[in-house]
Design brief:
The complex is a heterodimer of chains A (about 300) and B (about 325).
Chain A (H helix, E strand, L loop, with lengths): L2 H32 L6 H19 L2 H22 L9 H23 L15 E3 L5 E3 H23 L1 H11 L1 H6 L4 H24 L9 H15 L4 H27 L4 H26 L10
Helix pairs in contact in A: 1-5, 1-8, 1-9, 1-10, 2-3, 2-8, 2-9, 3-8, 5-6, 9-10, 9-11, 10-11
Chain B lengths: L2 H22 L4 H25 L8 H20 L13 H23 L5 H20 L9 E2 L14 H24 L1 H11 L1 H6 L4 H27 L1 E2 L6 H14 L6 H19 L3 H15 L3 H7 L6
Antiparallel strand pairs in B: 1-2
Helix pairs in contact in B: 1-2, 1-6, 2-6, 2-9, 2-10, 2-11, 3-4, 3-9, 4-9, 6-7, 6-9, 7-9, 10-11, 10-13, 11-12
Classes of the chains: A mainly alpha (about 300), B mainly alpha (about 325).
């Protein structure tokens, strides 16, 4: 196993991690501020991917598609919040799980109705289509590096938004005492819609960027959603910092586990068995990591309300 | 007799009567539909012990449903091709042995999952049970010995002494008997001292601890029992379809089990059965009209959560007496 291959895998893990961060940041924000478990977050990811693929196919521009994905996901998020989610804040987790599970069925089947069952394809924009040389001699696609860059930019942007702006101050106030900020004359309903739309836009952005790496199809959001849940549970629900560290941890564990475990088992067993057992264990690895972390820290690494 | 008892009796006897009516009018397909209702009702009754009585929102009960299914699949495969299973033990095609094996394995796995998961609560509990189920799901997909992603066929439905299980009616009666046993078990647990402690833990953990009962052990016991009952239903489900696949472990299955309970009425004796009957009927009726039936199912579920709290039982039998 060469150094170049190893660096490539680490970059893949990082790219997967920042993509998870875009999902997890929205989920954890929505949970932290509104106390809501949103299973339908993966559907917003899918909405972003479909919007990007459709607009890019119609106009020929990936960049217009990207704008469309943000707009479509934010709009879908706002509409869903106003029609459905708003009624769930006072309910228990069980009702929230069921209602957002129902939303998944509606989004998935609705998308299948409009776009059919065949996957759509999204091309990487010309500007980002090349590859760069890594130390050690391997080629690495520019697009994946750009995804990492966008993820880092979003992380910094969110940090500034939450920490330095008036809106961020309201969001933090809403997290710690929602009655009090309502009493201070802030329209909490609008604030919630905004936070939900922001989370949805981030999910849509993630969907659009991933859409160029894999096919755009119904149900593409669900595996990502479950991993994003793993991320926020590891990181501590409600904590953006936890979501960032959790995402990178999960992204690297998942990617490096798939890459390294079969090699590791090959050291002491026949290659065919090693490949099978390594692959089986690699697919379970992040859940094992999550179980271990929760066994020792039952509310995650950076619990927001600890 | 309370309204709850009347509605419960109506549902149970109605389900028992339906296949005989179907046979009399020459529509044997409906027997399979009723069998499906009984099996899903049993699976959700298992979950109802943890979720309804104990307030433990397990989003990973598909793990136990699937373990039951794979117990049936794996034991039947070994019986079919004559290879010994473990330590020279043979496979079997006897349902009773399969149910016991599935329940015991599910109980052991539930004990391990419960030991870790029950240290958490709220959303963390929901997510960690989901994560354990996903772990088993991915294991089933990537482990090639029993079909991997393709699943495992059961060539001949497993047997039951004195009955021809291939006849739809016999298999329905077996499933119905187990459902009835599951409901009796649920009622016994609910009305026992153990059940009282379990429900008290849901309502107020601090008070339960203050009278000297540790909630953890009670919950662990309930979680294990709940898993074992769901596993038996999983074994029946495998025999119904004569096929098991990793989809039995999928998080959609866990969601579906929760849906059945909420649709019917959380913590109510006949809630899961009512949910299963309504769900299978919807699935069947909507599926006949449009291939996009899941969209309408989603809308109906949404309407139930938002506007019809208490589900079917809440609608017909009034509010739960306590809880």
């Amino acid at each position: 196993m060469s150094l170049a291959l190893f660096i490539e895998q680490i970059l893949n893990g990082l790219q997967f991690g920042v993509m998870l961060f875009l999902m997890a940041a929205g989920l954890t924000l929505i949970f932290g501020v509104m106390g809501l478990i949103n299973l339908a977050h993966g559907s917003l990811f899918m909405v972003g991917a479909f919007a990007c693929a459709t607009v890019a196919a119609a106009t020929g521009s990936f960049w217009l598609g990207l704008v469309a994905s943000l707009a479509a996901a934010a709009a879908a998020g706002a509409v869903v919040e106003i029609l459905v989610i708003r009624r769930l804040y006072e309910r228990n987790h069980l009702d929230q799980v069921l209602a957002t599970f129902a939303l998944i069925l509606i989004f998935s089947e609705g998308t299948r109705w409009v776009f059919g069952s065949f996957p759509l394809y999204l091309d990487i924009p010309a500007l980002l289509s090349g590859a760069v040389r890594l130390p050690g001699g391997a080629q690495y696609p520019v697009y994946r590096l750009a995804v990492i860059g966008v993820g880092i930019a979003v992380a910094i942007g969110l940090y500034l938004l939450i920490g330095k702006t008036r809106l961020g101050m309201r969001i933090r106030a809403g997290e710690s005492d929602r009655e009090m900020i309502a009493a201070l004359g802030i329209d909490i309903g609008t604030l919630y819609t905004l936070v939900f739309a922001l989370g949805a836009a981030l999910a849509g952005l993630a969907g659009a960027m991933v859409g160029a790496l894999q096919s755009v199809q119904v149900g593409m959001g669900e595996p990502v959603l479950i991993l994003a849940f793993v991320v926020i549970v590891i990181g501590g629900i409600g904590s953006i910092k936890g979501a960032l560290i959790g995402s990178i941890l999960v992204g690297l564990t998942e990617t490096l586990g798939r890459f390294l475990l079969p090699h590791a088992f090959a050291l002491f067993m026949p290659p065919s068995d090693a490949a099978t057992i390594g692959a089986a264990l690699a697919s379970m690895l992040i859940y094992i990591v999550m179980a271990l972390i929760l066994a020792f820290r039952p509310s995650g690494l950076f619990a927001a309300n600890a | 007799m309370s309204r709850e008892t009347i509605v419960t009796a109506f549902l149970v006897l109605g389900l028992l009567a339906a296949p005989f009516v179907a046979q009399a009018i020459g529509e044997p397909f409906y027997i399979t539909l009723a069998t499906r209702m009984a099996i899903l009702g049993l699976a959700a009754t298992g979950l109802n012990i943890a979720l309804g009585l104990g307030g433990l929102v397990s989003f990973g009960h598909a793990a136990f449903f699937g373990i039951g299914g794979y117990a049936a699949g794996i034991l039947a495969t070994h019986a079919f091709n004559g290879e010994p299973l473990l330590f020279g033990l043979p496979g079997t095609n006897q349902m009773i042995v399969i149910w016991l094996a599935g329940a015991v394995v599910a109980g052991i796995i539930a004990a391990l999952i419960g030991l870790i998961s029950l240290r958490t609560s709220g959303v963390y509990f929901i997510m960690i049970t989901l994560a354990f189920a996903q772990m088993i799901y991915y294991f089933a997909i990537s482990w090639p010995a029993y079909g991997g992603e393709d699943g495992l066929s059961i060539y001949v439905r497993n047997g039951f002494p004195g009955l021809n299980t291939l006849a739809p009616m016999s298999f329905f009666l077996i499933s119905f008997a187990l459902l009835a046993a599951g409901l009796v078990l649920f009622a016994l647990i609910r009305d026992s001292r153990f059940g009282a402690a379990l429900q008290a833990g849901r309502q107020n953990e601090t008070r339960l601890a203050a009278v000297g009962i540790a909630p953890f052990r009670i919950r662990l016991a309930a979680f294990i029992l709940s898993a074992m009952l769901t596993a038996v239903a999983g074994a029946l489900f495998a025999d119904l379809n004569r096929f098991v696949s990793p989809s039995m472990f999928s998080w959609h299955m866990s969601g579906e089990l929760i849906v059945l309970i909420i649709l019917g009425g959380v913590g109510r004796l006949a809630g899961p059965l009512a949910g299963a009957i309504v769900y299978v009927l919807f699935e069947f009726a909507l599926g006949g009209i449009t291939e996009h039936w899941q969209l309408f199912l989603g809308l109906i579920l949404l309407a139930v959560v938002l506007f019809a709290r208490g589900g079917v039982m809440g609608m017909f039998a009034g509010r739960a007496r306590h809880g």
